[in-house]
Amino acid sequence: MIVPFIDLKQNYLAVKEEILKELNEVLDNTQYILGPKVASFEKKFAAFHQVEHCYATSSGTAANHLALWALNVGVGDEVIMPSNTFIATAWGATLCGATPVFVDCDPDTYNINPDLIEDKITSRTRAIIAVHLFGQPADMDRIKAIGEKHSLFVIEDAAQAHSAEYKGRKVGGLGKVASFSFYPGKSLGAYGEGGAITTNDPLLAHKIKIMREHGSEEKYHHIVLGHNYRMEGLQGAVLGVKLKYLEKWFYERRIKVDLYRKYLGEIEELRLPVEAAEVKHSYHLFVVVAQNRNALQSFLKSRQIETGLHYPIPLHLQHCFKFLGYQEGDFPVSEFMALSSLSLPIFPEITEEQIIYVADQIKSFYSLVSKTNYQIPFAKDYLENKKGLSEFSRIS
Questions:
Q1: pLDDT at residue 354 above 90?
Q2: pTM for this structure?
Q3: How far apart are CA 292 and CA 296, in angstroms?
Q4: Which residues in the chain belong to E strands, given as ranges?
C-alpha cells in the first residue's frame, strides 16, 4: 500500500470544477493582482476566524514581516519567539532589522513555554510571537498576561492553525495581530504562495493595507514605507472556494487523528500528541515522538509510507543565526524534538485502511528492533538525564 504524506491531487479533484470556474472568471476579467476574488476571500476569512480585518499577502513569510513592520519593530529591537518553529517565523523579525530571541518549548505541547519567556525580556524587547505549532494554539492567556505586564505586542503565528480554537475562539484574533500561510500543503492551501494578516485594530489594519501596496493608498502617492506584498487574483479565487470546505476538512482531520490514537495507542515506543485543555488542535501535522526515529523513518519509507521531519534543526542552531551565540544544549526540549519527532501522514482524505497500514508497519518495526540500547522516549527524560545533543544523536 502507498501512503503519501499529503495528497494534494485528491484534494484538488474534490473541488476541481468549482476551482476552474473561479479561475476562468479571473482570467476572463484579467484581474491578476488583488481584485474582487481576493477582497471576497479576505472578508470571508475574517468572518471565519472571528476577526474584524483581514488582508491577504503574497506569502506567509510576507505576513510575518508585515505584522512586525506595521508595529514599527526595527533595528535594535528584540522579538521573543520559540526555537522550535519554521524559520519564516524568525524572518519576520530579521527583515525588520530586529533580533530574534529564542525560547525553549513546552515538553507536552511543543509550543513556546510561557514559564521561560520573562527571563528573556530586556529593555529592547518589543514583541512576543506565539506560534500555534503543528496546529495547536499556544497558551495565549499566559502569554498575553506577560505581554501586558511588560507592554509588549503579542503576535500570533497561525501559519499551521487554520480553524484551530482556543477556549471557544478561533485563532487569529487573540493577539494584537496574526499571520497565516496558505502554502499549498497547509490545511487551507493556495495553488502557489499566499498568506494573510488578521487583526481587530482598525488603525493597524489600515496601515497594513497601505504597506502591502508599496506604502500607497493612491497610485504614485507613497505615504509610508512599504513593499509589494499583494496576493494574486488567482490565489484569492482558489482560497475562496477552498474556504467553504475548511471546517469540514478540519473535523475530518480530527476524526483521522482519533483513528491514529486508536491504532497507535499501545505502542510504548511512541509518544502521541498531547492536546491541551480547552483547545481544538487543527492537526495540520500529526507529530509523534519516536524511539529510533531515523531508523523508523527509513523503515516506513521502504514500506512506501511518506513521513516528514518538523524540524530537524532548531532555529538557535541554524548556521544563519550563529552570530547570536547560542550553543548546543541551550534549548534541550527543542533539541530533543529535532532528533526524535516524526510527522506521520495526515490529510482529510486519508483512509482508515491506510492508517491501519501505517500503524501495523510501525508495530512491525519495533518488534524487529532490539530494546537493549539505551533510549530516551520523552523530553522530560532527556532533561532529567542532562545528556547533550551529540550524545542523544548517537543513541537515537
A1: yes
A2: 0.93
A3: 6
A4: 53-57, 78-82, 99-103, 125-131, 153-157, 165-166, 169-170, 177-181, 195-199, 216-218, 221-222, 270-271, 279-280, 286-290, 341-344
